[in-house]
Design a protein that fits this description.
The protein is α/β, with parallel strands linked by helices and about 260 residues long. Helix content is about 40%, strand content about 15%.
Length: about 260
Amino acid sequence: MKIKTALVTGGASGIGKKTALCLAEKGFQLVINYRNSESEAKSLARQLTEQYGTRNIAVQGDLSVQKDCIHLVNETFSVFDTVDVLVHNAGPYIHERKRMTDYSFEEWNYLINGNLNAVFYLSKLILPSMRSQKWGRIVTLGYDRVETAPGWVYRSAFAAAKTGLASLTRTIAMEEAEFGITANMVCPGDITNEWKEKNIKEALHEISGEGTGRRQGTGEDIARVIAFLVDEASDFITGSVLPVTGGIDVLGKVFKLPDEHGIN
């Protein structure tokens, strides 16, 4: 039986790492893309190889740069015959909250390229391989209610990119269905950095004492959904945008900018 190959962008840490671990546990061999975390990516690839006896590699690439996307795919195909699963987890994000007009041209292009254009580049290069075998899975990451094209105050570039990506994901699903390829988007809720590599079991031990009964969201919550979507039997699920938020309205949070912006 053929061992399937999964390419996870931004797979060296956070939700990407949890996804790689989850897919490896289910028998996939991994291509772990990283931008700066070389030691972490290579260490994870070695860990998976030692633990599961599969072949796993780490490939550097800044996915906001077209030539790096091409390099990533070329390096992948130099080792593996096909890419069966593409998980586009990497997505540039600027934590500073600011109005659209406060973004530099470089910042805007960085966010649009990394969150939207990179998916076009990678999918265009990988889809022929998926078509040839009549099987493939593409999973992108968005944010809650992205399919409704909501405005997201002080997050204009990121929101514009992910809204476009939701449409692109659904278009890929329609265009590639005849080839046995599915495309879906998973939308994580407010999962903080320290919880992106933690497990559900850990979160259950730290349920808030506020009486809400809500626990922290974890990287495992997202990885489990991605693993379900790429399963053989999940072929009837395509073009879906799936929120994994714990019922939290992320966009409903109200933030204020500093006084120098003149809006307080």
